[in-house]
């Protein structure tokens, strides 16, 4: 039974659809019509395009749907100009073997905001979200501009609108669970606000909050030894996240996995009184 009261998603012949893989078997116009439903209306406004069309008023196609037949994978890329380096809106989702949907990535960038090259090293090589190499000068500029780790531009504050649509889409497939792996501490805290709980990593999150309290292990490491370990950074989600990105934890940021039951708020808060 639908948790949010959504009618079950049907193919053009009236048969129910239960996964991304099944949607991907449809003809391209039909599956793109379905997938457009998860894009916030404000994205179409920003792109100056009709939601029913793939092109803007100026002609070029601005939204690309990567949804290959035979695979349970969807990627949506929306750009102001097809040649732009960065997407305005990017989402990647996938079926799991357990009849869940994984929300792998969701990025919503303000194309008018300054870009910080935190995604590449000083030689222009992709750094896999800072896990292989870091571009510390760019990270410092991004942090000073109020961005979080791995964020190349300021966002557009549209995630809540996207997630409402996404959750209804999942409900219409008859799926109960959304899973994700937050790339950074600030992502994990934000997902808590949207009702997620932890599959793994909850004890780590609680330990982080405890050890950022005065006298704790992480609190003591905010000693000014790097720009990302300044006293006072324990007070905000963003400050903690930069310190963690800088390697302040005794272990890598890894194996934090989360889930949300559609229509249910888990009520998890591992940073009481949090300030972003």
Molecular structure report:
With about 280 residues, this protein is an alpha+beta fold. The chain has a domain at about 20-200 and about 250-260: Gcn5-related N-acetyltransferase (GNAT) (Aminopeptidase), CATH 3.40.630.30. It is about 30% helix and about 15% strand. It has nine helices and seven strands. It has helices at about 20-25, 30-35, 40-45, 135-145, 160-170, 185-195, 200-210, 215-220, 235-245; strands spanning about 65, 75-80, 90-95, 100-110, 175-180, 195-200, 255-260.
Describe the structure using short key phrases.
276 residues; alpha+beta; Aminopeptidase; seven-stranded mixed beta sheet; 7 strands; 14% strand
């Amino acid at each position: 039974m639908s948790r949010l009261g959504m009618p079950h998603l049907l193919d053009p012949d009236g048969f129910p659809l239960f996964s991304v893989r099944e949607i991907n078997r449809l003809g391209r116009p039909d599956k793109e019509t379905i997938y457009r439903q998860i894009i916030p209306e404000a994205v179409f406004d920003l792109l100056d395009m009709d939601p029913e069309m793939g092109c803007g008023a100026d002609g070029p196609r601005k939204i690309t749907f990567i949804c290959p037949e035979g695979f349970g994978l969807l990627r949506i890329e929306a750009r102001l100009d097809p040649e732009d380096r960065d997407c305005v809106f990017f989402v990647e989702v996938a079926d799991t073997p357990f009849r869940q949907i994984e929300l792998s990535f969701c990025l919503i960038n303000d194309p008018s905001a300054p870009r910080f090259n935190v995604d590449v090293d000083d030689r222009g090589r992709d750094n896999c979200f800072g896990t292989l190499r870091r571009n510390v000068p760019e990270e410092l500029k991004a942090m000073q501009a109020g961005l979080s780790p791995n964020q190349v531009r300021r966002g557009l504050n549209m995630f809540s609108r996207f997630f409402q649509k996404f959750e209804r889409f999942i409900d219409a497939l008859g799926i109960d669970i959304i899973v994700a792996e937050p790339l950074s501490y600030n992502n994990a805290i934000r997902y808590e606000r949207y009702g997620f709980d932890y599959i793994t990593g909850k004890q780590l999150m609680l330990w982080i909050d405890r050890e950022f309290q005065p006298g704790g292990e992480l609190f003591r490491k905010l000693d000014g030894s790097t720009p990302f370990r300044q006293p006072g950074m324990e007070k905000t989600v963003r400050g903690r996240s930069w310190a963690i990105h800088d390697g302040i934890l005794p272990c890598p940021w890894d194996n934090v996995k989360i889930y949300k039951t559609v229509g249910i708020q888990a009520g998890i808060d591992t940073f009481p009184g949090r300030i972003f």
